[in-house]
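User: I'm putting together notes for a lab meeting next week and I want to include a structural view of one of the chains we've been expressing. I don't have a solved structure, so I'd like a prediction I can at least talk through. The sequence is below, exactly as it appears in our construct file.
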Amino acid sequence: MPILSGILTNFATKLTEYENYETQGAYDTALTQKIFVLNFITSYLPIFLTAFIYVPFGNIIVPYLDVFSLTVRPFAEDEKQLTVPPKGAFSINPDRLRKQVIYFTVTAQIVNLGMELVVPYLKRRGFSKYKQIQSDRAANRERTPPATSANESPEDSAFLARVRQEAELSVYDVTQDLREMVLQVSRTPAFPSFCFMR
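Assistant: Thanks for the context. Below is the predicted structure for the 198-residue chain, given as structure tokens.
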């Protein structure tokens, strides 16, 4: 899902740039609306399909969906594997909706936490280590001391090092945080309480 969301976000950004808004505020508003709708669709569409199509109409619709045999045909060893079960053989899994909601409220939050906190941290550390190795190799080839001023105080040196590290960080996007907050509020267990009713 993060890859699909990234592709859709890039598509929405290009579409918004193509629309050529007069002000940056109008551009940001249009982009935020598009990305929010895309995030809502990618987040909630599977649950809505399960709740309103699969559970009530699954035993009617699923026997007519023969997509599985088309995709499996090249890998099948005999015709027995390609036979479609009779109409009465398919039964709905009522536990599927509850598992989807549990994934959506718990597991997806843990994955998002890792993608937002752990991955950027590891990426920054990896890139800084790579740059340090590259600069050490260049310094060894040229046999020159590191570029620091002779009259630079230790406080200034530490400050400049921190500024250089912060300059390498990615640009902070406020609208992305707002979209995530809205989706997280709607992901609270109280929101999809209809799924846990028996």
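A couple of points you could mention at the meeting. The mean pLDDT is 77. The helical segments are 2-19, 24-61, 67-72, 95-142, 154-167, 174-186.

User: Perfect, that's what I needed.
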